[in-house]
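Trying the structure run again after the queue cleared.
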Amino acid sequence: MTELGATTDDATFARLLEDVRGHVDRSLAVWLEPRVAVASAVSAETGAAAEAVERLAVRGGKRMRAALVAAGYVACVDDSSSSDAAAFAAVEGAMLGIELLQVYLLIHDDWMDDDDVRRGGPSVHVHLRERLGSKALGDAAAILAGDLACSYAQVALLESKQSAERVLAAARAFARIQEDVVTGQLAEMSSAASVEVIHALKTASYTVTGPLALGAHLAGASEARVAQLARYGRPLGIAFQLRDDLLGAFGDTSATGKPVGNDIRQGKRTALIVEMRGHAANEALLGRVLGRHDAPEAEVTEVVKAMETSGAKARVEARVAELLAEARAALETMGLPQGSRGKQWLAGAVRALGERSA
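Done. Tokens:
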């Protein structure tokens, strides 16, 4: 049954996501198994790192990025002549590559943020500390495990069954994704950098615009079409991260899997925090609570309440709506056939990424 308020496009994208999730989950397990075996034959430490990558990679995930690789591909081919299965086969290397790239980024992010849990299990650095019996060895192995996942991502992409020219174009786009993400991560350290610029680099690049570009390049799309997809994907990717900021403060923990207020305790400069700045009472409150890992629940709740009473929440929600409207308008300019899978998948992605509750 279609959810109340959902559209045919939403249901079509939901089916795509379900099909991609099953395909990627199976393919990742098969692809990683022999590589873990090779790593384990080198040394116990090497095997532990490879196994940790495998555990995180196959332990779940929405597979939205892989789905957008498929959507980018189908939006650039005659989708009436190709089944979903054929489209998945055409871009399987890129789908696995983008999911392994996310594993690399999650491993490093969790270590930098000192997060203990990821996808319902221990984060990689926590697992490896226990496995290797040392915090120092576990942390070093975790960083190297992330690097290993990054190398696996390159290999998977380069195994794509397309022409050398198309794979090279996709590889260049893949390198740009990594450059953008690292640039955004570094920019996040600065209090002067624009939050939306950071989101465009750190999140939109590897969550939306990058996956779409991978699929488009493997389809042999023109640079003009890739640029159109970027104009659609950039605002959607920013909206995705802004929604994540909102869920971090106002979401249902049972749905998101993240403790409410975790961003506050970690001192993250989310859009909500930026919108609170400039008011004396808010500044005093943030000065007491923001970035305090041991902040009492009552004080964290006070910050969350101030986000609402100060209008910060409403302003961020309004910005999300603007960005989603921008993405929808950009989609209309592409001239994709009405009712085509490519258009339905891209239209459904707007709601799935920008209006999600988890």
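The first strand starts at residue 117 and ends at 118. Worth checking whether this holds up in the mutant runs.
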